[in-house]
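Lay summary. Proteins are chains of building blocks that fold into shapes, and those shapes determine what they do. In this project we predict the shape from the chain. Here is one chain we studied, written as its sequence of building blocks.
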Amino acid sequence: MAKSGSPSKVATARTERSANTRQALVDAAIETLKEHGFAGASARTISERAGLNQGLVFYHFGSVANLLLAALDAVSDDRMIRFSAAVENVTSPNELMDVAAQIFREDLDTGHVTVLVEMIAGASSTPGLGAEVATRIGPWFTFTKDAIDKTFGDSPFASLLPAEDVAYTIVALFLGLEMLTHLDGDRERALTIFGRAQQLVTMLGAFSAFAPPKEKP
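And here is the predicted shape, written in a compact code that computers can read:
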């Protein structure tokens, strides 16, 4: 007769195996997107990289597109954790620009930008994928807005430049720079732009010293 505790142990073991399988597929999908792009991210290629049966892709995720979105989620979650920690102690616009340049370099070094670029590229040929990718970019607008509020909130220019609009512009420019750098491989040109932005921020800081203080409500 089986021991009373055995069913729950079996269930736990299966849950752990299932989680490990899903993680292996997600990791393999990330590396496949980096190496082969969206067009080469087939169920067969991903499962072979993970060392698993191809059918497990559909068993756990339902489709290759869902697996690739899970891969994008994993990359985005990791970036959000690391970058939130990076801006936590930022207190000035200049420091914020330094962090932005650091984030840009890390995205290129880790290849995370490749995952996003390939998913955006795949959205043009996969119905419904574009909306899903856009949804996953959304939290970065909030992240950027919060960082702007934190560092520019007391500036007299804050009332002239709504944080929501500035955040949208910055994210759009950031993605554009990452995509262009991904295509031509010239990161130095993009980093030069960060240097110019740093100079602009410094100039704005100098002007703000002579601008009237922001009125308190």
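What the prediction tells us: The domain at 8-208 is CATH 1.10.357.10 (Tetracycline Repressor; domain 2).
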